[in-house]
Structure formats: structure tokens, C-alpha cells
Design goal:
The protein is 44% helix and 20% strand. It contains 5 helices and 6 strands; from the N terminus they run βββββααβααα. The relative contact order is 0.09. The chain folds into 2 domains: 33 residues; 104 residues. By secondary structure, it is α+β, with helices and mostly antiparallel strands. The chain is elongated and about 80 Å long.
């Protein structure tokens, strides 16, 4: 490590401690030439999560882009921003937990639809119509029918039982 004061390349570590929620190590160093002290941080080099698009192109995972898609689907719906952010956080965490550096956009879209289906059916249908690229009203109606059939089979936990 080069001393920021004199440029000498030898130093000794005086103190080390965990920093930034355990994501870094803070080290106090002392130059062996001029005896000045300085601080360095050591991080694990992270490889960004890449999203493989339908056309095969790759782009870095972007939580803001995911959140924007969720917000668009939930526009003018009774879904709080906190719920939308929580959904984006959950999906991001699930992607990280897969221990893969690449994830298909289809997998992300399916996770969004799975979560929207439990929160708001209209937002789910909006997202599905764009995501699945319905070609005509028949495909759209089939999706709505499937949603209605699923809703009828199990009680709606979102409704107040009183």
C-alpha cells in the first residue's frame, strides 16, 4: 500500500475492524518511512448480477427498473409504495440467493407476477398483459379466467372476514 503522504510502499497495520455492516474491513496503517497514519478499506470484489434478456442480450440487474415496472402495474391501485419497495427488495434478495451471476428476465417477470397476484389482481393482469405480450383479447381473457378460477377455489385472505 502506497503512503498517501510520502509515497513509500511499506507500512504496518495498526488496527483492523469490521465496517459498513460487515461488508468492509477498515484498517489503520502507519507508514514505515514517515510514520504518518492513514486509513484503508478492504472490500470483497462483487461481480454484478446480470440479466439475460429474451433476445439474449445481457445487462446489469437494476432494482430501480424492476421497481418502476411494479409501480407502473400498480398505478392508481391501493398498493402502498412500501409494499412495492418490499416486493422489489424480496425479488432482489431471491435473485442474490440463487448464487448465480446471470438470471433470465423471464424468471424475474415470473416472480413479479407471483407476488402481484397475491397483492392486487388488477396490477397482476396489467403486468401480465405487458410481460406475456398478449396477442389478442382471447389470451387476455384466458388469463383473467384463470385468475378468477384460482380466486374462487381459495378464500381471499385480503378481505375482512366481518
Amino acid at each position: 500500500m502506497k503512503c498517501p503522504f510520502c509515497g513509500h510502499e511499506e507500512d504496518k497495520v495498526v488496527d483492523s475492524r469490521s465496517s459498513r455492516e460487515g461488508k468492509a474491513i477498515r484498517r489503520r496503517r502507519e507508514c514505515l518511512s514517515c510514520s504518518e497514519r492513514f486509513t484503508t478499506y478492504e472490500y470483497v470484489e462483487e461481480i454484478p448480477l446480470m440479466v439475460v434478456k429474451r433476445d439474449g442480450n445481457r445487462e446489469p440487474y437494476d432494482r430501480q427498473k424492476l421497481l418502476k415496472g411494479i409501480m407502473t402495474a400498480c398505478k392508481k391501485r391501493p398498493v402502498t409504495i412500501q409494499a412495492m419497495e418490499a416486493m422489489a427488495n424480496e425479488i432482489g434478495k431471491e435473485m442474490e440467493d440463487l448464487d448465480r451471476r446471470e438470471i433470465k428476465s423471464i424468471e424475474i417477470g415470473e416472480k413479479v407476477m407471483e407476488k402481484l397476484k397475491t397483492i392486487d389482481h388488477i396490477a397482476y393482469v396489467r403486468f401480465a398483459s405487458v410481460y406475456r405480450k398478449f396477442k389478442d383479447t382471447t389470451e387476455f381473457l384466458d388469463e383473467v379466467r384463470e385468475l378468477l378460477d384460482t380466486s374462487r377455489r381459495k378464500p381471499d385472505s385480503r378481505k375482512d372476514p366481518s
